Each structure stands twice: as C-alpha cells, then as structure tokens.
Amino acid sequence: MKLFRGHLFSPTANPFERPTENHIEVADGYVLVDDSGLIAATGHFDERPSNPDLEVVDRGRDILIVPGFVDTHLHAPQLEMIGSYGGHLLEWLNRYTFPTEARFADVNHAREIASALFDELLRHGTLTALIFSTVHEGATSAFFEEAERRGVRAIIGKTMMDRNAPDNLLEDPEESYEASRRLLTTWHGRGLLRYAITPRFAPTSTPRLLELAGKLKREFPDAYVHTHISENVAEVAWVRELFPEADSYAEVYREAGLLGERSILAHGVHLEDRELTLLAATRTKISHCPNSNLFLGSGLFPLRRILDHGVEISLGSDIGAGTTPSMFTAMADAYKVQQVQGVSLTPFQLWYLATLGGAEALCMGDETGSLEAGKDADFNLLDLRATSLLSLRTEGAESLQDLLAGLIFMGDDRVVLQSYVKGRLVSSRT
Ligand code: GUN
Ligand code: ZN
Known about the structure:
Blueprint: E1 2-11, E2 23-33, E3 39-44, E4 55-58, E5 63-67, E6 69-75, H1 89-102, H2 107-123, E7 126-132, H3 137-150, E8 153-157, E9 159-160, H4 173-187, E10 193-199, H5 207-219, E11 224-229, H6 233-242, H7 249-255, E12 263-267, H8 273-282, E13 285-288, H9 290-295, H10 303-308, E14 313-315, H11 327-339, H12 347-354, H13 356-361, E15 379-383, H14 388-395, H15 400-410, E16 416-421, E17 424-428
Parallel strand pairs: 1-4, 1-5, 6-7, 7-8, 8-10, 9-10, 10-11, 11-12, 12-13, 13-14
Antiparallel strand pairs: 1-2, 2-3, 5-15, 15-16, 16-17
Helix pairs in contact: 2-3, 3-4, 4-5, 11-12, 11-15, 12-15, 14-15
C-alpha cells in the first residue's frame, strides 16, 4: 500500500446536470493506493491509516492531487506538423496533413513519433487518450506498442480512407476492413489498451468503406468508433454533395451503423438540431476541440445548444490542428470560446470535461477519471509553485474554485510534477 499526501480535488458527478455535490475537495488530504493499483481510500491527512509499513509519498504542502487528464481526440502522426498555418480544414488537410501522414509508411518513423507523442502526453498529465493513427497498419501497431510500454490507457485506431486523398494513402475498402480487424483482435482489451474503428470522416470514405466499418462494429460491439463530424462549413456542404441521398451528415454515419454510446465524433461545430436529436437518441458523444477550432477557424462550438439536446461532450486537444497537448489549454480555450458567446463556464465544469467527463464519454467512468475509492489510481501531482507567477496566483487564491481557475489559465506542463496510472509512476519531473 502507498499513501500520497496533498490537497485533493476531484469531480465526482457531472456539474452541468448537478450544480452541487459534484466534486470532492480536501485540504491536506491523502490518497491511499492498494497493491493492485486501485484507490483504497481518500481523506484528511491527519486521519490517515497508521499502518507502519505504509510507504508515504509526501512532496510538501503545495501539491494538488487531481485525476489524470483525458484527451478524447488527437492525431498521433500530426505531432510534428503542429502550427502548419494559413489554410482552413480542407486546404490544411491537402497541403500539410496528408503529406505528413504519408511518412508513416516507414515504421521506424512511426516509432520515433510514438515515443515523442507519449513523452508529451505524459509530461502534460494526459493519462487516457483516444488517438487517430494513419492508414498504416505497421504505424498503428507502433503506437499501440509504445502506449503499452509507457503503461498509459489508450484507445487507438488505424485511419480508414478510400477516396479524396492522395493515392499513397488510399486503400481498398476490403483491405482496410481486414487490417482494422487484425489490429482490433490483437489490441482491443489488452491491458489498458482498446481499439477504435476509425474512418477518417465521410468525405474520405465511400459508402462501401463506411458499411465495412459498421460491419466491424457489429462484429465487435464493445470496440469504439472514432471519426469527425461537421467541423467546417465547406466540409458539411461537401458531404451533402458526396452523399446526396442522406438526410444529414449524422445520418451518413447512422446508416452505416456507426453511432452509439462508444462512438466519439470530433468537433460537431455546425450540427443541426435534428442531428443533435439523433446523436442524443443513440448516446453518441462529441469531442469538443476548442484550440483546433480556433486555429483552423472552424467556428464557435455551440455548447449550450448541444448540452440542451442531451448530447454528452468532453475535451480533445486535436493535435496537430490543435497546437498543444495541454489539457490546461483545452480548458482555457473552451472557456474563451463560450465567453464570446455569452456563456461563462465554471472551473468545476471545465475540470469535469477534462477528466471525469472524458472518462464517462469513453465509457470508462467506472475505472478512471476521478479520485474515488474502487477506481484505478490514475492521478497527477500538481505543483502549485511550479513558477513564481503561479505561486503568486495560487497563494492568494480565495477558494478551491479560484485556485482551479488559476491553474486553467496559467498552468502548463511545468505544473505536472508526477503522474501515476494504476498507482504506477509513469512520468516524473524530478
Ligand atoms: N477532418 C478529417 N481529418 C481531419 C484531421 O486530421 N484533423 C481535423 N482537425 N479534422 C479532420
Ligand atoms: Zn481530428
């Protein structure tokens, strides 16, 4: 057994639905982790268990223990093209993204980027992530292998594409299905790893490819589906041309059997009300990626309207259209995107979206996302004095909510002192 000392903060319920009693906070508390990596108990440090062979991790008075961050949308191969500026979505894909992704035909390149990616995610305290690979089977295996080596929780999928991209990234739909199936049967459910069936988005898919993705989902109902929807107005218009028979963009995915509670659609900036009704009815989730939406100029996420329809949301970095893996930035940008639309999100709502909300969106709310007894011990030790400016801000914080706000807007990877997954140290600054 191991005992960690620090102030504790953790969401315990959805603050959009439950305005009170939605989190725990303990000044000078502890998290007790058992030998199987589960949280055995939390409480006040002076009421800690007094077992003599308990190992105590005590890094001083200025540590905040929070659940690991959950990033519900990012592209592993795009790490090296962050900040490729100038174009909106469709131009950006053709000009930068497809040439970058073509390099992942080389497995050694994939291994190098996989190592860099998990360095970055862990340094920023992201302990669970839903990840796009490229179309390459070898590169996708390389991302899984690295995730396994690092001991993080990851859902990864081979991108499926069979039209509207350069020839060197296009596949025969049957081969795409077979390769996805091989990867799924190898990796889905192995340790902390899961598989996501990953058609890139409707414009790079023929109806046949989507049908085969749906077939795979039917064969493996507990696998995930990961794709994009309604990010950009030109994309939405293009889907209308490419799928003239479909009633809407969301209908294209529904017809293929791709909606459901383990389906995560990135963006959803321009969805119509009837599409939101469909997503809510199928319990399909949206990953909101505010940093990416601002970078690509995709639009302002209609969070209030989406929540009012009963669709669950979480937060994604969307590297490399997003410019950082930092979930502090994801929270800060989510806040700003709502501020300009007249909605003021609270720090508790933002931290929920970046932790427990992400875990619930990924149907992992029983395993991770909060500091509650019985869950896996997945948490970060945050250093409230990581920089002199942060010290100045956190020392004067008038409440926990105010402290969390300071971290959202001023926090970065320097704040993340140590990270644990299932009670195992996976990253440490010192
Ligand atoms: N839509 C289809 N592919 C992509 C991608 O790689 N990034 C983003 N942001 N949107 C997409
Ligand atoms: Zn994306």
